[in-house]
Amino acid sequence: MGKNSTKRRDAKGKAGKQRSGSVSLSSFRAGRALDSLAPAFVQWFDDGMPGAANAALEYLKLMAPVLSRYLDGTAAADITSLDPSALAEAVAQTVTDTAAGQDAEVPESERAAYIVDAVRSYVEFLSETDRWTGTEEQLAKVLDVFEGLADDGGQSGIQVPDISRDQALAGFAGLPLIQKATALLEWIGDGKPVTGTGALRLRDIEAAAACIGVAATGDANQDGSSHDTLVVRSMYEVPLLARIWAVLQDVELIRVKPTKVVPFEEPGHFLAGEPAQQLDDFTMFTESFLRQAVLRLHPEQPWETTIAALLVSLLLAAASPEPPLVERFLAAPDHAPESEREATAELTTVVMNRLQELADLGLLTIDTHFRVPPVLIESIAEVFDYPQLLAQLGLEESLEAEELAAPVG
Question: Strands 365-366 and 370-371: what pairing?
Fold first, then answer.
């Protein structure tokens, strides 16, 4: 973990504390309501980022004073249907009122970013788990308000370019990732048989893999591959196929039933929807893929946190106005202590291979610098530029973007 990670954990705990004194009725109501939602919120949070259950509990602490102030200022009967302006005011009051009790080492902007991100996470939780009880229009307004507040709290210095919807749609449609997913969806059609484990049958692996540009065939009796074709005993031995398959399920484009994989209710938006709907589907799919491809966090694989931290810092820097030099990154082993040089070289190779995988899918360009295509900059910020993730990965607040982008020599 980075040197600021402990400070951030302390900041989150302190930001969630209210001033001492009697507990108001609103505080009691907010606490009881959050307690009833806590198990589901923690599970939802951990599903999105395995191993983050403790962070979810910290976010619940941050939300408690916000929702208490919200109930104080409204006649609301619950906390699952929220008024945008009243909620924004409650956030502002919480940031201001907790300032006096904060450690001087915790910047106000950092504290505000945690609070805003906690509130946004709570609203997204209500929406994604069908616990939101307000109108769709009300939900959209709430999300719009807090998207703006969260963007103000970003730590990477990313500047999202102004791109029209038509330009964005064309940019996403041209990504090899989207083209491969489209081909796989079209191949699935009305449905394809699956095994008891939810995987494609061996006989169907070759056709499915061809959709994503991989030469592979299924054969339960062979353990090896020819020069041109990968021979596998399961579709999960074709990493890109397995990942795209998982993302299609995550964004509800396909549903795996006991004996068959079928399209979700409305997959047509991805394949041929109205421009706005298709762009939303392309964006959602790409962001889910980035999340799964980069954040391969697992409690039993601690090295994956180190790899993820490097990938996230490089991607955020690559999305900034001063992208990092490839040469500087590849030279990292040369500057490592002798005792760490071999391990650093291995780590550099693994990270570079994963960056190349992203580049092969159009999610990154690699020449003299690492650069994120303009159409994807907003998605990179959405997926990776938020306080809780940066703290979990132990990244410096500035992500050392200036050092990564500095000339070699």
Answer: antiparallel
Query: What pTM, to 2 d.p., does this model score?
Result: 0.66
Identify which of 316, 306, 334 has the alpha carbon closest to the alpha carbon of residue 404. 316
Pick from 227, 226, 246: nearest CA to 235: 246
Mean pLDDT of 349-357: 95
Looking at residue 12, its amino acid is K
Contact in structure between 79 and 71 (CB atoms under 8 Å): yes
Per-residue tokens: 205: 């692996």
pLDDT on residue 290 = 95
At 63-113, the pLDDT tens digits run 888 888 888 877 777 888 888 888 888 888 787 766 545 544 445 556 677
63 three-class SS: helix
Contact 49, 387 (CB under 8 A): no
Residues in the chain: 409
Residue 370 has pLDDT above 80, yes or no: yes
With CA atoms as reference, report the closest residue to 238 among 209, 211, 199. 209
> Would the CA dihedral through 338, 344, 349, 355 be positive or negative?
negative
